[in-house]
Batch of 2 targets.
Target 1
Amino acid sequence: MVEKDLRGRRALITGASSGIGRKTAEEFAARGADVAVASRREDVLKELAETLENEADIEALAVEMDVTDETQVARGVSSIVDAFGGLDIVVNNAGIGCGGPITQVSTEEYRSVMSVNVDGMFFVTRETMPHLLDSEGALLFVGSTSGRYPRPDYPIYAASKWWTRGFALSIAGQAGEDGVAVTLINPGTTRTDFGSSFRASNTEKYDAGEALDPKDVAETIAFAAKQEAPTTISELAVTMRDSLSNT
Ligand SMILES: NC(=O)c1ccc[n+]([C@@H]2O[C@H](COP(=O)([O-])OP(=O)(O)OC[C@H]3O[C@@H](n4cnc5c(N)ncnc54)[C@H](OP(=O)(O)O)[C@@H]3O)[C@@H](O)[C@H]2O)c1
């Protein structure tokens, strides 16, 4: 039985239709939080929201929100605040990748990664910050170990995650003194659909036990989200134990 340590908290999770975001929504709901699950695939989100409400005594809201579109982000956040009466936790999770030799990266691939991983995190942070300031809530960013080390196979993706780290830690400096808890979570390779747009997905590439399970990351996010004022966890890495053996 999971402890209901997020009971009554109102959370938004971006990129919640799949992988780490989906497991985080499940973890938050099990711990008693009301959850707004957001991404582009509304049908998947509706099914997820229904399952979460059936399995836990919480409210769940499916919100179609392309994070690259500031109008959709504004509309989505406003609908969540109307429904929940405010926001206590925001997980900036939606993200995509691209890879390969730099000579073969198309402008379109480059722009897609930057618009989801960089613009998206900016739009969601700007739009939700007034509500987090009201509630003295928690803002969590899903970065990556790729945001801490050079990644010869994924330079654009890695650079976008270095941006996430710089942004998250700077926002912590700005909003921390107003009582907002900011956390950067850096997962290592995780078995999700990640990568399927440019190579085999991580679930196809790695067997269970060869990479993190998204639930491991979700539990880490929940651990950071439940911290009470005046404490926050500023940055956490969650990795396989041998992750530093081959860097
Ligand atoms: N898997 C890993 O190895 C790993 C390691 C470190 C960090 N991360 C990070 O973890 C985060 C989640 O990735 P994941 O591994 O869970 O991948 P995933 O299973 O592919 O999930 C990605 C999520 O992002 C959403 N998304 C993509 N474009 C979007 C857009 N324009 N607007 C809104 N949502 C969008 C997708 O939903 P829709 O398609 O429904 O929009 C999906 O829910 C990303 O930030 C990723 O960089 C992953």
Target 2
Amino acid sequence: MSFFNHLEMLPPDPIFGLVKAFQEDKNPNKADLTVGIYYNEDLKPEVLKVVKEAEKALVDLEKTKTYLPIDGDQFYLEGTLKLLFGEDLASSEGYRTYCAQSVGGTGALRVVAQTLKEFVTDEIYIPAPTWPNHLKVFKSAGLEVKTYPYYNNKSHQIEFEEMLKTISKIKEGSAILFHGCCHNPTGKDPTKQQWEELSKLILEKKLIPVFDVAYQGFGESLDEDAWAVRHFVKAGHELFACYSYSKIFGLYAERVGAVFAVTSDEKTKKILATNVKPLIRGNYSNPPKHGASIVSYVLHHEILSKSWRQELELMRVRIVNIRNEFSKLMQEKCPDRDYRYIDSLKGLFCLTGLSKEQVLKVIEDYGVYMTYGGRINLTGLNHDNIEYVTDSISKVLKQKD
Ligand SMILES: Cc1ncc(COP(=O)(O)O)c(C=O)c1O
């Protein structure tokens, strides 16, 4: 007898399940393009040099391991707000922005989901497609999750007209999620002009935007990648931004993130803070310290902050170069298809155009692992495996043709 007899066996997580299958695969040429982790040219998920430096310094500096406040380390949050908003906007709009440290970007999304559900709305619209965990996080907070059209897998363009049409029919007061930059999984972001149109429509329809920012600096630059969020703040929206340092500081396992709630005025911010804090307290009580201390130390240290920006830029350049190489090789190997669209995408990911059946085939026959939607992490490629991977993908594409 067991209290759990009524449960059925469920399939593994679509992304982390594939990692396990990859580890068990005996194919000597296997390639892991699945999880959103930045790998260097040797395909290693290294600890950043500035992180090591900060950790060394913190060993001596840290005097206590007592709890952080419920909404975290304010010094860390100040640095993060400046990074996302830029110095000027952080100082002009900080008075109406509630900031809370979170357990990674996912934890930020969860706090926002619960805040929306308790105080604002029962529904949120997410792009189709999106990072699959958005659905789980929002549903687990009790929100009804609906989608808006985002990306056309054939034209490789944003379905902007369809998107506007759907958004214009959304019920007033609902929430809508956007990827601040480097859209996961498509790599396709709206243009500045499109963001401006979206901002206007969302103000007009009285929707509350939620920005998910997990890749600032992986697209064009720290400032350019924050353009959309900054534009919405300047345009006068109340909004949420969920921030993650997992990728851009390589602090995946340390769970470092932040929630920003831009409200209408200072009084509202203070009232909101008193309402969000009990949600955090009843959830994980207060956030973990180590990762946020590292980030805070680096951001506030003149030399390390510069070094981090250089390390981040090196990561970004590697992504751009390997993306261009991938696009060129795919174009050579599949001349009937158009792979030039990949050049203009941003961030870690792109969609290969493989169907789920083709993905299963490329995994089984060639040991090339990617998500079932055909998304690849470009940094799983390097000069040693890119020929093999592009050969494998093109062979599978041709079988179907
Ligand atoms: C779009 C997006 N949002 C949020 C996250 C979550 O980040 P974290 O690992 O900090 O929870 C990810 C991670 O892959 C992501 O791709």
